[in-house]
Write a structure and sequence with these properties.
It contains 6 helices and 8 strands. By secondary structure, the chain is an alpha+beta fold. It folds into 2 domains: 130 residues, no CATH class; 70 residues, no CATH class. The strands form 3 sheets. A 4-stranded antiparallel sheet has the order 3-6-7-8, with no helix packed on it. It has a two-stranded antiparallel sheet with strand order 1-2. A two-stranded antiparallel sheet has the order 4-5. A hairpin with a 3-residue loop joins strand 6 and strand 7. The longest helix has 22 residues. The radius of gyration is 18 Å and the shape is globular. About 4% of the residues have low confidence.
């Protein structure tokens, strides 16, 4: 294990934890407003903020299964990282304030990357329009299709590649990712149109 830039890794972790756990600020008509944190919004939307566009509508479970799954994954993983603490935000806050050493850089970076991925997952659950699925094979693993369980437990087929404004491209099969700055290059590489709102 080699030493790394622990300060950069810690900054990345702090930003990721803040993004997940702190109230979100927005300026609207010259006034500052605060919304619930991404974590709190997902937790508060467990019942009712779900559905799909099928007609006729299918029956839905009494709670939002996708949200329960994400919350459970976050809770289990943060307990592995830091067993003490009453909740995921408590444990992440404690992790963020630990006196990390330079040789912990890879671990801190991995935690920060995982927390960022949780933020993107929550945003895509809350606002599915914020993502775009790509009908092309992943340049890394070659997979074009993955199978996932939907909210009702049905096995559904999805494109392996997806794009989100904040995370860029990601393969749901092999987890390879390409940052938002690479969107133009990646779109040309795959021969697809640029996502809406992305300029050349």
């Amino acid at each position: 294990m080699t030493d790394g830039n622990i300060q950069a890794a810690r900054t990345k972790l702090t930003r990721a934890v803040d993004r997940l756990c702190k109230p979100r600020m927005a300026v609207y008509h010259d006034r500052t407003h605060y919304a619930m944190s991404l974590y709190c919004q997902l937790e508060s939307d467990l019942a009712g903020t779900q559905g799909d566009t099928r007609t006729p509508a299918k029956s839905l479970p009494p709670l939002w299964i996708d949200a329960v799954q994400v919350l459970g994954d976050m809770d289990n993983q943060t307990r592995k990282w830091f067993p003490r603490g009453k909740s995921t935000p408590d444990r992440l806050g404690a992790l963020d304030s630990l006196p990390w050493r330079p040789q912990d850089t890879d671990k801190v970076t991995t935690i920060a990357t995982t927390v960022e991925a949780w933020c993107e997952t929550i945003i895509n659950l809350i606002d599915p329009k914020a993502q775009m699925h790509i009908t092309a094979a992943c340049p890394s693993c070659g997979r074009a299709i993955v199978y996932r369980r939907d909210s009702g437990g049905d096995l559904v087929r999805q494109e392996a590649l997806k794009w989100t404004p904040n995370a860029g491209f990601q393969c749901q099969a092999c987890k390879a990712s390409w940052s938002p700055e690479q969107t133009l290059f990646f779109a040309k590489l795959l021969g697809i149109e640029l996502p809406e709102g992305v300029l050349e």
